[in-house]
Amino acid sequence: MRAAYAAGIEVTEVTERAAAALSDTVHPQGLVARCTVPGVTAAEVLAAGPRLVAVLVDTNDPGNAGVVIRLADAAGADAVLFAGDAVDPYNPKAVRASTGSLFHLPVARVPDVVELLPLLSGAGLSVLATTGAATVDLDEAQDGGVLDLPTAWLFGSEAHGLPADLADGADERVAVPIYGRAESLNLATAAAVCLYASARAHRGRRGALSS
């Protein structure tokens, strides 16, 4: 509290009942902050020349959204975009699931998915759509050098996947290979596999160029 006062931040003490009403958790931490949401746009994010971007399309689960932000941060991605009818990245559950990563990298929205592919392609990004109906699997993409390029990964909702027109408009449709008997992977797991595959390819590429 002394540090907040010293920084010129307004501090108001409230009762436990009021604190509980201000929070959506069962056992609030006792501190609530009122913050301004960053106003970065997708165009500004893409103008910075990113090499790895995660794009959540119509993803409506805040927990999954926050986990993917955390994964993108861990994999060294440059940004996360929320496209179409996607959950608010500043939903309290998404913020908690990101465990701070929401504040480490730019997060922006693209409300109209029609604008998405031109924006990504115009930024020089190779657009890869994750879908079961794929033209290549992730192993083939790695071996073929597809992942060496600056990349935007498109991830759809767990319930419906990516819209067909969006998947068809991507540069490649990529499937995560399943070697066992599981029917599928959840969104966060698929995102982790894909983002880290790109991160490895990019790090290897930089090493090859420097040598």
How would you describe what is shown here?
- Residues 52-196 form the tRNA/rRNA methyltransferase SpoU type domain.
- 37% of the residues are buried.
- It contains 9 helices and 7 strands, in the order αααβαβαβαββαβαβα.
- The radius of gyration is 19 Å and the shape is elongated.
- The protein has 2 domains: 1-34, no CATH class; 42-210, SPOUT methyltransferase, trefoil knot domain (Alpha/beta knot, 3-Layer(aba) Sandwich), CATH 3.40.1280.10.
- 38% of the residues lie in helices and 15% in strands.
- Strands 3-2-1-6-4-7-5 form a 7-stranded parallel sheet, sandwiched between helices.
- The protein has 211 residues and is an alpha/beta fold.
